[in-house]
Amino acid sequence: MKFKSIKGTKDILPDESHLWQSVEQHIRSVMETYNYKEIRTSVFEETSLFARSIGELTDIVGKEMYSFIDRSGDSLTLKPEMTAAVIRSYIQHNLGKKQPLTKVYYLSPAFRQERPQAGRLRQFHQFGAEAIGGSNPEIDAEIISLSAAIYKKFGITEFEVRINSVGCQKCREEYKFILKSFLSAIANKLSTESQRKIDTNPMRVLDSKDENDKQLTIGAPLIKDYLCDECRIHFEKLQSLLQIAGVDYVVDGRIVRGLDYYTKTAYEIISNELGSQDALTGGGRYDLLVSELGGKPTPSVGFAAGMERLIMILKKRNKLNVTAPHPKLFIAAMDDKSRNRVFQEIFKLRNQGISCETDLLNRSLKAQMREADRQQADYVIVIGENEINSNRVSMKAMRTGIQQEISLDELPNYLTGN
Ligand code: HAM
User: For ligand 1, what atom is nearest to the CA of residue 259?
Assistant: First the structure.
């Protein structure tokens, strides 16, 4: 019996992992430029944490979570997103005590049982940031600017930042009433999925992927036109701040997001290079979540983005010309008698932090040279009886073919450029 990876999961193989590492490093450096610090939380949490925060009636909680009962009878869930886990941790460790605004970022796997397709996996990876503890639109602008800066760092500029305001509890309830009456009038023409949402989550009808639904809701009332003064002023200020920050954006009144915790700002970054899964990033403000999860009222804002979707674009654009890690030096053994000395040299160099490789399979000299080539080593030396007696070796630079005689004792300095 041959085992296979679970549907919708992907192994990151050795010849690709360095690309991921490089992308992760770039992301970390932008996050740190904006003064966000990394937070790492457990891969699973209590199921009720997600039900409570993301919302019982959302697709994620309703049909996509990997939940299970552990041996103690507790219901646990592999995290489908990071925000709830970060806020749980923020409250538990009283992170707000140290500073009024807590700025954290993360890179983490996430799990959703969706139908796999290009850009949509069941285990995927998110990078994101949360700014916890402030209600000013400056913080929304910083989060949006940060997420856009990450794509720009990779030389990706063809994306669209679409912003909306989904209002607060007060104006949203009034708006929902108006929206419901609009939708009820066309209910029998809408898809069954959308019909179901009229009562449970009417705003989600506006981002239905069904073409007919899209046509039917073209003239639907949009929340941005029904905001209370506080939400409207916040949204206007956000827009002027984005202009100051030099972030291009469009207002898209149909951005409603698939998670229930948003208040005021909701936004997405979309790329037309991704096919049907076109969202690179999603985020927004969630002023009530901390108190809903048992903390003090703490307005917050954040975003998360799909790593796989970013990497898909980078690959398409050939923007991932990262050199694969390779050994600086390959030491071949002329014959079996020299192998112990080779071993000794290899460990000596490695102890000094120099990456080097040798043959561990007792192969012929010819096969060892082929291996050195395959490993793309920068230099190769062969050690045999002569080299051992004279303590000198001929070092060949693989890319130029130039050979140079050098004492074995000088090797470390030569290889580290000292
Ligand atoms: P989200 O829109 O559910 O938001 O996910 C954010 C991003 O994760 C998406 O834009 C997409 O790039 C990626 N993503 C989501 N599902 C998948 C999947 N099945 N396969 C591959 N990539 C996927 C959130 O998760 C919120 N926590 C964002 C947030 C942070 N809001 C405030 N703070």
Answer: 3
pLDDT at 418 (0 to 100)? 62
Looking at the fold, whether 303 and 385 belong to one and the same domain comes out as no
Residue 288 sits in the same domain as residue 350: no
Per residue in 242-260, pLDDT tens? 999 999 999 999 999 989 9
104 CB near ligand 1 (under 6 Å): no
Which atom of ligand 1 is closest in space to residue 286's alpha carbon? 32
On whether the pTM is more than 0.85, the answer is yes
Domain range for 410: 329-416
Is there an atom of ligand 1 within 6 Å of 308 CB? yes
Does one domain contain both 57 and 128? yes
Ligand 1 centroid to 306 CA: how many Å? 6
Contact indicator for 54, 60 with CB cutoff of 8 Å? yes
Question: Whole-angstrom Cα distance, residue 313 to residue 298?
Answer: 36
Q: How many domains does the chain have?
A: 2
